[in-house]
Write a structure and sequence with these properties.
This protein is α/β, with parallel strands linked by helices and about 190 residues long. The protein has helices at about 5-35, 85-100, 115-125, 175-180, 180-185, and strands at about 55, 60-65, 70-80, 105-110, 130-135, 150-155, 160-165. It folds into two domains: about 5-35; about 45-185, Glutaredoxin.
Length: about 190
Amino acid sequence: MNHLDTTAMNGPRASRRRLLKSLSALALGGATGLVASPAAARGLRLGEPAPPAVLVTLDGTRIASADLLGQVVILTFWATYCGPCREELPLLSAYAATHATDGLRVLGFCIDEPDSVAAVRDVARTLSFPVGFLREDSAPAYGRIWRMPVSFVIDRAGRLRDNGWARRDSAWTAASLERIVTPLLSEGAP
């Protein structure tokens, strides 16, 4: 077999390799879009008015962050399959129950697929705060939720006071709740 015959045989194989490399590069470029997705949330500025968020609970109740002025609000994004979320939720639930009379509201946005409603309901039954599925129009200004858990805190005046994207460890701990949220509960209503 001469050189031309070898090239002819490798031609389709080489073309496939080039195609696979191109597709891989495209896929990696698309995947970095997932990592870079908080760019959509770059407009989040501490101390500025918090973007709107609307939770439609599992029972169909609509709760808008704008309707909660005068209260401190935590928007938390989680999933049933997320281990750190499942560890954080009981802590956040206990904190919310303890501070409900201080004006704290927690809205839980679950990013599971709607066909997971039974599993989401099982978790929701154990929580002291309302839960619903994240929809495209629920909280778009907070960016694509790619890291979980992640939360955002809105003060009584409706200003963003904690941006979960900016924290290295976005899962709540007792210490981070005390450091970030408790002082806001002490501030008077606007």
